[in-house]
Amino acid sequence: MKGTVTIITGAAQGIGRAIAELVADKGGDVAIFDVIDGSGVCDTIRSKGRRCELYTVDVSDSQTVQAAVDQVVKDLGKIDNLVNNAGITADKLLLRMKDEDWDRVMAVNLRSVFNCTKAVVRHMLRSGGSIVNISSIAGVMGNAGQANYAASKAGIIGFTKSVAREYAERSIRVNAVAPGFIRTKMTDALDEKAKESMHAAIPLKRLGEPEDVANVVYFLLSKYGSYVTGEVINVNGGLYM
Ligand SMILES: NC(=O)c1ccc[n+]([C@@H]2O[C@H](COP(=O)([O-])OP(=O)(O)OC[C@H]3O[C@@H](n4cnc5c(N)ncnc54)[C@H](O)[C@@H]3O)[C@@H](O)[C@H]2O)c1
């Protein structure tokens, strides 16, 4: 990753943070788009001798995203990779789900992927690039109580395959990663009973760590994934095969 610039959304914590730190460990520079403070991540990355810039960006807003992407090019010189990782949940059974629950989840999880991808692709047309979109096991197999979230994550998969086909001839690879149950603040919010039953159902008999996802994202960003595009890789301990 030496000499590369990677934008990672939602990298102030959780899976995004693990991806940012691994990219930096492998020699890459990082730009973080988040709505919360990510200065701790950037301090860690700079201590590894790599460049890191923070941008306060609500990824659901196309104009803010466009301005931030242009600023990354000014600050760090170019964009080689994008990881669309920012995401939220607003879980409810369908009959209790409000219009706002649907709209906000679709905007932050799916529209954001359109916004960020469209803004960076312009900068990748000449030299190519790699884009990784973080989907979810819920988008592949569905999940009761997550109709909005699962729809947004399934939408990411259709988007990934379409853009992969559209820009393959420009050497822009586009892939998705579908994590299972990963230990982060997002899953901390689940009640103990749900966590226990999830744990029992995972063939590898452990919850995933953010680093388990980061390793696969790194594979797709790096030269090791150079002949992979339009793919969805499950990282779920065997929970869905
Ligand atoms: N944790 C899991 O088990 C799991 C499983 C499957 C998929 N995922 C997906 O992985 C991604 C990361 O999840 P996580 O578990 O690290 O969650 P997290 O809540 O720990 O981190 C999400 C990050 O996204 C940021 N964010 C939220 N809304 C934003 C917005 N509008 N603009 C910019 N940034 C925003 C948050 O501030 C936070 O830093 C998400 O897309 C999530 O859906 C997580």
Description:
- The protein is of the alpha/beta class.
- The chain has a single domain, classed as NAD(P)-binding Rossmann-like Domain (Rossmann fold).
- The protein is 47% helix and 16% strand.
- The protein contains nine helices and seven strands.
- A seven-stranded parallel sheet has the order 3-2-1-4-5-6-7, sandwiched between helices.
- Strand 2, helix 2 and strand 3 form a beta-alpha-beta unit.
- Helix 3 packs parallel to helix 4 and helix 4 packs parallel to helix 6.
- The longest helix has 26 residues.
- The mean pLDDT is 97.
- The structure holds nicotinamide-adenine-dinucleotide (NAD).
- The site of nicotinamide-adenine-dinucleotide has 29 residues, from helix 1, strand 2 and helix 7.
Summarize this entry quickly.
With 241 residues, the protein is of the alpha/beta class.
Which labels suit this protein?
Rossmann fold; 241 residues; 7 strands; alpha/beta; binds nicotinamide-adenine-dinucleotide; 9 helices
